Amino acid sequence: MVVQSRRCRTVAPALPAGRGPLATILIAALFPLRAVAGAAEPSTGDTRQAVLSAYEQQVHPFLKTYCATCHNAQKHKGDVDFESVAGAEAALAKPALWKTCAEKLATREMPPEKERKQPSDAERGVVAAWVRSVRRLSPRDPGVSAIRRLSRAEYANSLHDLLGCDPQVAAELPADVVGEGYNNSISPLLMEKYLLVADEVLDQLIKPDQLMLTWRAGQLDAIVGAQREEGRPDGAERRFTGPGEVTALIPAPVDGTYTIRVKASAEKLGRDPAKLAVRIDGQVVGELKITAAPKTPAVQTLTIKLAAGKARLSLLMANPYVEVEAPKKDPAAQVVTKPGATKPKPPTVTPAKPGGVTKQAAGAAGAGDGQQLRIVTIEDIEVLGPPGALASPAQRRLLVAMPGKDVTKTEAARRIAQAFARRAFRRPPAADEIEVLMSVFALADSQDEVFTESVKLMMKAVLVSPQFLFITADDPPGTSGEIVPLGDHQLASRLSYLLWATMPDDELSALADDGRLHQPALLAQQVRRLIADPRSHALFDGFGAQWLGLDRLAELQVDEKKFPLMTKDLRKAMYAEASMLFETIMREDRPLGEFIDCDYTFVNGLLAKVYGLDDTVKGPQFRKVQLIDGNRGGVLTMPGVMAVTSLPNRTSPVKRGRWVLEQILGQNPPPPPMNVPPLEKQNGTESAGLNLRKRTERHREDPACNGCHRVLDPIGFGLENFDAIGRWRDRDDTGGAVDATGELPGKAVFRTPQDLKKIIGARKDDFCRTLSAKLLAYALCRHLEGYDEVVADEIAAATAKDGYRFQSLITAIVTSYPFLNRHVTH
Predict the structure, then answer these.
(1) H or E element: which one contains 687?
(2) How far apart are CA 603 and CA 620, in angstroms?
(3) Phi and psi torsions of 262, nearest 5°
(4) Model pTM above 0.90
(5) From the CB of residue 599, how many other CB atoms can be counted at a distance below 10 Å?
(6) What distance in Å separates the CA atoms of residue 522 and residue 529, rounded to the nearest whole number?
(7) Which tens digits make up the pLDDT trace of 482-532?
(8) CA-based angle 201:207:213, to the nearest 5?
(9) Contact 243, 360 (CB under 8 A)
(10) DSSP state of 705
(11) Which position among 23, 236, 413, 467 has the lowest Cβ density within 10 Å, counted as fewest Cβ atoms?
(12) 3 state SS of 744
């Protein structure tokens, strides 16, 4: 598709024969040519007038002719009274009514088959076209684009691309909540889980540096003379006269041997040196003898074992006192210094008990009788940890700067914060966001964490921030209540998470930085590039598997005694087959019709048994095979789809028929009436000898059930040749021959699954419109409403014009109005 502008170009379809000028006006209003040189869109007033005129001249007469007999003021069957909408203005006030009418006309549920007078296909088409034209009167609005969390798969993939870790680290996160049928939002945030994941990942990738802490003793808290003194940033040494203690916190990053070095001196007093007891968390682990004189302090060393974590270090005066003995009065010992005077001998000093604290505790204020206080000066304390591990490639990639001769720790941390936040936030971080991260770094650094541990805490803050966990908008300030284009960075994220379920790569990010990504030609080129990348398999995991119902395969209840082949490995093979078909159509840009019918598939030896190809395909490896049986090929008859649309012990024509209507043709049959028992329990005696088809036909005789089953059942029975795990069979569970014949509304008769596939495959526009709407809802992560339905019409028309190609569909979605714009509500 050649994109002409930011809105998809659409074209008018060919008109069925027999339509008059009014129909031409209606179709022109419904499918205006857009963005074509010289073509002007009709004004809203012109479109509205055409819709009103079409109702009065064609739709209202249709209702009077075919519907008014049952849906009037007296009968109003189904609570529908068309007499109440006789006027065109009144009709436009009930868009939901007309949507239901169009669905019932399309399925031939209305008018009922018993009515002799039936509208032609052309007449039904006019009403359907008018209903679509009513949608076009909706205000042009991209809808509210809710800020959403990353799904579990998106979160895991983003961690992998950001950090290089195994996506399985996110396996313990809460299960996703399904919205609009797809898992792209998650249950309420459990911050503890995200913190645990961040801890685990960062601890694996970033190994701590060697711990090297140095304090001036005056910078640490102390107890001096029974008084607590706080450390000061500009503190110098600590001088203890008698009892004293200094404390510090060691943030040990790893288990291992740590070296404590203390530079200190002491005045000589007594025979024994001053001693400092070394305690860790209150337990004495060693002792340092301080022998250096006050003017020549020396370093004393002690090695200890520490476990990773915080440890409190204390240096405590072990012998703050010495005992002083009084001199004996010995006249002979006196020395005469001058007539009439004597000089006593020096006193004898008795040291305190070696290795312990003296009889007065460390908090004592002063010496007692016969005691003298020691004087010790502690200048520096150093703690050295075990050597750090070599940095891994991931660590070198994430830590873009390291402290060094010309780079301070703060400067290095800021460079890391800017680079890491740019990738994690998927946009350039704001200045205030960087300052928040730097405050986290400063908090860790102030507690003497090694540099890598401080950086790790800063990175953890990024990984649990809303900027990472949510896909956020980048609206300009003051835009509340306005419709604004998505910023290029948000557009890059929306595109990347749609096709890859992960963050934008460098090329997308560079285009967003340059402000060029919103250009239609570049956007289309990026769609093709992203699809060609192997990461685009995420579109099947996120959308395709849920569209087909194969996300339920792993937990599907199956009677394993009846179907022993349905093992865990076969379930995986069924899923892989659908994934390979989806990716082939997507990457090779093949027509959408190949989803319905194609002559190839992908099987391994296990799945080949289901196909009856086990003579030619063996082993666990998948290979592409050509299918010569026209009943095979495409998702309608794929074993995985046949399995998820069956009951545990048998097939279910009703489930299969509903699946085709909803997932392929875009029709939504109403739910079954309340308290309807299973077929096996209905009319037990009368139905005992009947096969499944006969019991279902008996059930359909109930008028309350006929309306739905008349369409569901024929499709489902057209697939009855496939058992509950997708194997071909000619006889059903009762041993009778399978009857796969049927007739769909419009006299479309089929006898085999191949015939049924051709009938459904011929409805290309219905399938294209269905897939367009489902993919658009997935891309927008919300239910379609209002103007979205118009956009889905435009996308389908643009895709059809380009040969129903898959990449044309994706490009049309990515360049659509609601994908490129948002309604700001904050």
Answers:
(1) helix 684-687
(2) 9
(3) -125, 125
(4) no
(5) 14
(6) 10
(7) 888 999 999 999 999 999 999 999 999 999 999 999 999 999 999 999 999
(8) 130
(9) yes
(10) H
(11) 236
(12) strand
